[in-house]
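Milestone 3.1: sequence recovery, worked example.
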């Protein structure tokens, strides 16, 4: 068995166990393998092991890596999990199947324009700055409901769910619970939360998408 296969199997087993603890169906949890900083040599074995959802945090890096990989694996599904600049909306809509970092009105407008122009609509997650951290992207929890409504009503965007990255020093479960409560309040189905260090807690709190990098690819430089 390849290392990639063994690591993927281990992560999938841990997701299944966490889901089982809450009586959830593990099929409701999509594993997004975060391949940022890794090249095709590292990604190909993960594709060969059957993984199809991948996360990248930079548009330019993904544009350099994925067209060639997609020629070999046309059913690969790409998630943008990092901040998106408004002037990269065109490239992002063309390349990604999901964008997890929608967090401001200007970006909502730019995405709406590109979605109409390209006739291609990535699934959209609104990023919530659940810890109200100064340096972190995302709408503040108090502003999330209004922002989601404006995305829908002003910009005509279908919002699939919410995403968060808990503060490093905090207990993540509190943030996962907050995001779940917000999503329920807004009638949103999808929750992008949980990374290598905390994806089991995220699954226990209702994650539908976990973004797992180092547990699959090894540590990044
Ligand atoms: C890098 C990254 C991840 C994956 O982190 P790991 O700790 O390697 O699993 C998940 N989400 C976001 C937004 C990231 O930037």
């Amino acid at each position: 068995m390849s290392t990639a296969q063994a690591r993927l199997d281990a992560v999938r087993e841990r997701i299944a166990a966490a889901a089982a603890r809450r009586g959830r169906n593990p099929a409701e949890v999509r594993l997004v393998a975060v391949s940022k900083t890794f090249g095709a040599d590292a990604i190909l074995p993960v594709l060969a092991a059957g993984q199809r959802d991948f996360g990248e945090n930079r548009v330019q890096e993904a544009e350099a890596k994925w067209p060639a990989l997609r020629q070999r694996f046309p059913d690969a599904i790409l998630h943008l999990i990092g901040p998106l600049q408004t002037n990269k909306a065109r490239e992002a809509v063309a390349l990604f199947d999901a964008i997890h970092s929608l967090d401001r009105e200007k970006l909502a407008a730019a995405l709406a324009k590109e979605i109409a122009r390209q006739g291609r609509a990535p699934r959209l997650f609104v990023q919530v700055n659940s810890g109200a951290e100064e340096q972190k992207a995302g709408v503040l929890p108090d502003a999330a409901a209004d922002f989601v409504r404006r995305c829908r009503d002003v910009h005509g965007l279908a919002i699939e769910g919410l995403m968060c990255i808990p503060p490093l020093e905090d207990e993540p479960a509190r943030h996962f619970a907050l995001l779940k409560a917000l999503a329920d309040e807004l009638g949103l189905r999808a929750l992008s939360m949980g990374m290598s260090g905390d994806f089991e807690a995220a699954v226990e709190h209702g994650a539908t998408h976990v973004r797992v990098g180092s547990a699959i690819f090894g540590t990044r430089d």
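Residues 34, 36, 57, 81-82, 165, 195-197, 211-215 surround pyridoxal-5'-phosphate (CB under 6 Å). The mean pLDDT is 97.
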